[in-house]
């Protein structure tokens, strides 16, 4: 039985995105990385990973990727990533693997490791520990989330393992809507949880427990063993780094 895959390819800025302008393309997902559009790289990796498919792509301008999409279903993306995932999952169902079009370095073995470690979760997110990223990609500057027992960067790999995972997406949507209203975020998460996060006294188990209390879902951060999995192409320096990594990496 194959696992459906959702690829998030939306861009708030469309053709005005800095990377789209840099690559002289109509959309960020079409940016050439090592001579191949980012989206094409991601779709190729999915095709080479056993047990995946069918593929759905969420993007605000479906016409711009029709030549690359192949047999994939294309959906109009919503205004935010959380809404795009929620709307797509309503059609795809669960379980479902979610990744992004800007994950140009994505490799089958990362997906296989992630899925093997994410078994039994209602929702899992792939991460790379800061020490792992700094070991494997010492020249990169990533954004890290700091908990009391780990500092990590996201790897743009998510497994929505059961219908309960949708409750976590709904929570994500509420937090995203209130990201500029700290008090409302505090009321959503709980003031104690927010204060512990700010003071870096919140550990991963406490975070899992709070999310489970709010959503009923069993969630996990899945640590990947290759720090390169945390490198996406989100700015011009990422493009340079990704092409350098590809140039010295065997397929």
Automatic annotation (TrEMBL):
Pfam families: NTP_transf_3 (PF12804). Keywords: Magnesium, Transferase. Residues 21-126 form the MobA-like NTP transferase domain. GO terms for molecular function: transferase activity. Gene3D superfamilies: Spore Coat Polysaccharide Biosynthesis Protein SpsA, Chain A. InterPro entries: MobA-like_NTP_Trfase, Nucleotide-diphossugar_trans. Transmembrane segments: none annotated. The keyword Magnesium applies. It comes from the Bacteria. This is NTP transferase domain-containing protein. It comes from Gluconobacter cerevisiae.
């Amino acid at each position: 039985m194959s696992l459906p895959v959702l690829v998030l390819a939306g861009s708030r800025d469309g053709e005005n995105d800095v990377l789209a302008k840099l690559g002289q393309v109509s959309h960020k997902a079409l940016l050439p990385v090592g001579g191949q559009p980012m989206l094409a790289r991601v779709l190729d990796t999915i095709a080479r990973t056993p047990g995946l498919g069918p593929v759905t792509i969420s993007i605000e301008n479906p016409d711009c990727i029709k030549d690359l999409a192949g047999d994939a279903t294309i959906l109009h993306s919503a205004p935010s990533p959380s809404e795009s995932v929620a709307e797509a999952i309503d059609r795809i169902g669960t379980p479902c693997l979610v990744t992004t079009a800007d994950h140009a370095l994505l490799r089958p073995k990362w997906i296989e490791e992630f899925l093997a470690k994410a078994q039994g979760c209602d929702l899992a997110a792939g991460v790379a520990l800061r020490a792992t990223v700094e070991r494997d990609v010492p020249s990169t500057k990533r954004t890290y989330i700091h908990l009391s027992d780990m500092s990590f960067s996201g790897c743009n790999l998510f497994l929505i393992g059961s219908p309960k995972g949708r409750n976590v997406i709904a929570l994500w949507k509420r937090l995203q809507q209130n990201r500029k209203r700290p008090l409302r975020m505090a009321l959503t998460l709980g003031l104690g949880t927010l204060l512990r996060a700010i003071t870096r006294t919140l550990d991963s188990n406490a975070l899992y427990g709070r999310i489970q209390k709010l959503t009923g879902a069993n969630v996990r951060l899945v640590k990947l063993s290759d720090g390169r999995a945390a490198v996406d192409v989100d700015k011009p320096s990422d493009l340079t780094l990704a092409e350098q990594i590809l140039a010295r990496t065997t397929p």
